[in-house]
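To whoever is covering the structure queue this week,

Two jobs came back overnight. Logging them here so there's a record in the thread.

Job A:
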Amino acid sequence: MAPARRLPDDFLWGASTSAHQIEGNNTNSDWWLFEHMDTPYIKEPSGDACDSYHRWPEDMDLLAELGFTDYRFSIEWARIEPAPGEFSQAAIAHYRRMVEGAHERGLRPLVTLHHFTAPRWFLERGGWAAAGSDELFARYLTAAAPVYATDVAYACTINEPNMLASMATLYKAHLSDGPPPTFGLTTPDGATTDALVRAHRRAVETVKSLAPHVRCGWSVANQVYQPLPGAEDVAAAFRHPREDVFLEAARDDDWLGVQSYTRTRIGPDGPLPVPPDAEHTLMGWEFYPRALGEALRHSAAVAPGVPLIVTENGIATADDTRRIQYTSEALDSLISTMDDGIDVRGYFHWSALDNYEWGRYAPTFGLIAVARETFTRTPKPSAAWLGAMGRRRILTLLEE
């Protein structure tokens, strides 16, 4: 393990959430619609989620008390623009209060402007691939400017656009009654990919025109494709449409978000299953914490010179001791990349809360447990361990 390291005062040290996964009753969202379709990917609806639309002050209080200095959260387009061109001033004021509330508690907000979900009307007109989607996204961001125009230093335009483009492929398969592709290994829809790149660039222009001080980027899901000997070309061909095209689009950004959980091994015929003797998480993924360092190195190679922020990294487990072990090893790999000169500006753990994991509640990623019926919040030992590092500004990792 790496020795203890002093964190710079401006190093971001926080936890992440997304609005749909914690707010509850986001009935105007396209994901609410998906949750009530007959699809094998959805095991249960989000319902009340964590009721964080009302309980966000408690969530922020806990994070600040634990020692975190930063909080990444998202705002909901479906709440802000429930019908085309109709904007809710109440929703805008709500998210503005969250920004102010974060500062009141000593938390620096990193605001995600789109985290997977969009209004139903946006889906019904064809989603991202429909003509003019970038203009509509920019219109929403213009209306939402009061949320981020002051007291926000970092904005993430779109969370995991590569997963959004893959979701478009899944949605098309659902509409055609074809066999469902394997989520996570799905080829992103090409038209959606192109549209998301345009929307991101338009979003950066829009935010900068309204709030020039805001540092803009987007976050990419890194699958850490590891080729077996002789499968390097297969891995490269597999990786580019699923990841690298989105990393390449970030080359002119202020920062790039890196999101990493595990690795994907690639053989001559494509992706290989998780080895049966490997430790599995509640998502069915391999316990492989050093994927984070590999994801950072790959992102830095594809988008050289762009500062990196780990916007998500974590593990779905019911055993919090494994969460601490996983995170310690992941942070050790992060330190190694920094020692090699890679510019990493922050780390956000996924997730602050046990939440709705896009179709089910069973995979528990949270540093804080949430009772499903009472919404009682209970910090786990991992939350105190990780938060204390932020308070002391010193990384102290477990011994192997």
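Job B:
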Amino acid sequence: MTSDVASKGSAEVNTAELTSAGELTAEDLGSVHLIGIGGVGMAGLARLLLTRGIPVSGSELREWPTLAGLRALGGIIHMSHVASNLDGVDTVVYSTAIPQDHLELVEARKRGLRVLHRSEALKAAMTNRQTIAVAGTHGKTTTTSIMTVILQHAGQDPSFVIGGEISEAGSNGHHGTGPHFVAEADESDKSFLIYRPHVAIVTNIEGDHLNNWGDLDALKAGFVQFGRLTEPDGCVVTCADDPGTQDLITTLRAEGRTVWTYGESADADLRISDIVSTASGVRYAASLDGEPLGEIKLALPGKHMGLNSAAAVLTALRLGLPLDKVVEALAAFPGVRRRFERKGIAAGVRVYDEYAYHPTSVKAALRTLREVAGDGRLLVVFQPYRVYRTRDLQAELAEGLAIADQVIVMEVFGPGEVRQPGEGGVALTAAIDLPADRKVFVPDWEDVPAEVVRRSREGDVVVTMGAPPISLMGDELLAALADSE
């Protein structure tokens, strides 16, 4: 989730400049202030620091759902961006979404405070832990969450920072007593290149964030570099089925590095087969190094969810965790907020929220939700995420959205970006191959609930999908549907 502070000036991280953290530990940071603390990534870091006993403050402009939990842990939240927020602060943390001319960032440097990118602060917190870093175009958050839950069920009490909240735990960050630290590694701004993981999980590699990387070849090379950063006795875990990971596998193995693979491919180290996905979840048969492991179940539907779980299963077994604890953890896994999250039901309409914004994840999510809808129709409220992505992948996004029966497209959420004529929600709506009465562009947030009420009927499934702010829409839709009864 990205907060409202981003504007012109935010850019990719120059990893060559990310040296100020050095070998800092979290305790070296003193009192920490996070600009844009409400975003899920920043909130996860804040929660980790707070559970470690480190004083944390932060600034925001909107009351994001993550803030209540941070306050309960003792975090101080300022609902404004002003210089006085930095009084008594030792370290200021910013994310790539924060422009370099942001008032608090400028003030921090003026005062001579320690200024760290989020990835630097996270690296400091990883000190003296065996890090499991999860990267990839799709599935990072779910895979990181499953890996965390497996370690918890095995009694390991891991530290973790996740780009989404594990549903029942309501947590996306924690300082544990165990030896492991599980974290998402963000390739979008290249900041994943400052970590030194023991295990580097790469779920898949597909063209995205090319505004920072330039082209797919450069992105693939970045993942190879990420794999090379693993500790000498560590390993890379990746999907054998994914076309984007093939160069990664070949290159790293040729260099003598340990690479373990999972998937349906015959040569996968953890091979999965007989995949069955229904509305109640996904299950598959698994074998490791040719030895059957039995059936593995996950209470979330979708083949892609099965693959995400397989990444965590392979990692756990290579770390020596017992199979029965792995299977037990998957069966109990509650899901992740904003990943196939059921918000509620009103007027006989089921409302879900889903973070998917890239064409591949949009297609996977909508196909899975079609299974859930059964005899009902599927309506999607889509808020495109980033102008460049919506423009460059417009045809693919339109193809994915056409899986739904009804599509409501909002305006693009792109902090700091400028839409040119012919770009944005209007163009995307026009590109969707559905009859005119089954798609509509609704630019104003307050008009969306009424449009959903008008288009939905009992038995339907409605999903809010896309950019971070749309996660706040579900409750409004439920209220509007309830009022319509």
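Note for Job B: The domain at 129-332 is CATH 3.40.1190.10 (UDP-N-acetylmuramoyl-L-alanine:D-glutamate ligase).

Please reply-all if you pick these up so we don't duplicate work.
Q.
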